[in-house]
Each structure stands twice: as structure tokens, then as C-alpha cells.
Design goal:
304 residues, alpha+beta, 46% helix
Amino acid sequence: MISTAKKVSLKNNYIGYTIEGDTDLISVEYEVAWDPGTTERRFVWEYLTHEDFIRYTEFPSHSVILEGIIKACKEHFPFFENFSVDGGGIEANIPPMCLTLHKSDEIQEYLVEYMDFLKYLGFSDESLSAGIHVNVDMSMLGRTQLDKSETVRKLCQFAFDNIDFVIKFSGRKRGAQILSDMYHFLGDVYNLKPKSENLREFLIHKNLLADFFMSDNTSSHLSLFNMHAGKCGRDALEIRWFGTTLDIKEYYQILEFAVSLIRFSRESTFEKLSESDYIQYVKEHPTMYNNLLDKLITHINRIR
């Protein structure tokens, strides 16, 4: 399906892929952690040296082995934009595509093969640090700057009003630092209203919102959104709160959750941002969000 898709030229020689009727570009930063025991490390080391991805040394370091794994991934999975060391393991950059193409049989088979390869090398989705960052085109937020601002406001309002629901569907493991960050920023920041008569409170509120949205490597917390991602040659909103997985259905549930939440926020009103409103929206698009809908149905049955 990718071979027949429309190619979109992006900045810095990046390429996006769309089809007629689905032109919203989504790229994914997919982190998976590697924390092997001695036996697993030796197995991977022997595999990499046998396949000439690293030179034989008696005591290879963790970083040397990861670099060898990246070389193997680049050879076996050339469609991915790039690989790097991140999240306690490696990160694969999945190129910009519309959601329909992300879910096509061709890409699904490619992802399953990649996941199986990572499992073979001892990677795990149990890490608290590794995550899946979904980068959606800023154009998905609306046509004008005002439309985009309104969508972001509604996205934040939904996350604040339904924080437990959002965290449950984030897929983050209990104990992950980002869960504390989500509760802090969604629970303690967005409900503060700037008061012109209280300059000190307004400045604190303004700075906290900046932390909430902007990536800042000097900060102790993990930002939930990055509005200046600029991923894969285009302006993007990066949604950073998702935990990683090596299960293809869970992977698609994360992707569908991110995309549907953006579209729901764009199309809804401030008066219609409840959990039930969102679930109804997903139900109205069962083909596009089929994996997510399965999870939502299980969620609904449990809370009844």
C-alpha cells in the first residue's frame, strides 16, 4: 500500500505518505528498553559479532552492544527514518503517514516483524522510562492559528477534566515518573486562572503552562506536550505521555487514542468534553478506531 501512496515532500528531505481522503500526517518515536541479564547479553553479543554488526571484544560495553543493535535494525528495517539510543534502549523513528497507512497490512506486518526482532534480542516493554511519542501535524489542529489555539485549549481541558481516564489510557506503568508529572500539571496547573490583579499568580501560572507544553531538557520533569517538535520535516504537536509496548494491538490503541483525541478536541465544543462525549465520538468512527474501541468497550463494562 505504501508503494501506491501519495508521497509528500517535507523539509530536510523527509517524505510523508498519504492517501486520498486521509491526509493527516502522524509520525512516531518508538522507544523500547533493553536491560538484559548476563545470559541474554552474551547471546546478543554473539549474534552481533557473528553477523558482523560489531567487532569481537571480550567485554563489550552496554553502549557498544546497543550501537550494534542499531546497525542491525538499520539493515533489517530500512523504512524507518532513523534509530538512536534512547529510553534505556533504542528509539525507532517511524516516518510521517496518515493513520490509514499506519494501520495498513504492509506496515502492520513490518511492525510485528520489528517487535519480534526486539523480543528476540531481549528488549522489554516493562521499563518505566521508555515511551511512545506521537507527533501529529500542527495542521490537524485547525486551519487558522485561532483554530489551533482553540483545539489545544480543548485538548488540555479534556485532559484536566478526565485526568484518571487519560492516565489509564496512557499505558504508562505504575511508578513511572511521568505519571506524577501528569497529575501535577493536569491537576494543579490548568485549573489555575490568571488574574490580572494578581501579577505574581499570573506569572507563576504562565511559567507552569510553559513547562507543561514545551520540551526543556534542563527541567526535572518530562513535558506532556511539545508544541515545537518539528519532527520529520514538519511542524508537529508531540504527545509524550504514552508508555511503550511490544504488542501490536496496544501499539495501535495508543496511535488511535492520540489521533482521535486531537480530532475530537478540534470538532467538539467546550461544553462537550466529557469522557462519555469522547467515547461516543470514537463509537461513531468504528473502522478508523477499531483497536481503541475494543479497549473502550472493556473499560465501559468494568465501570458499570
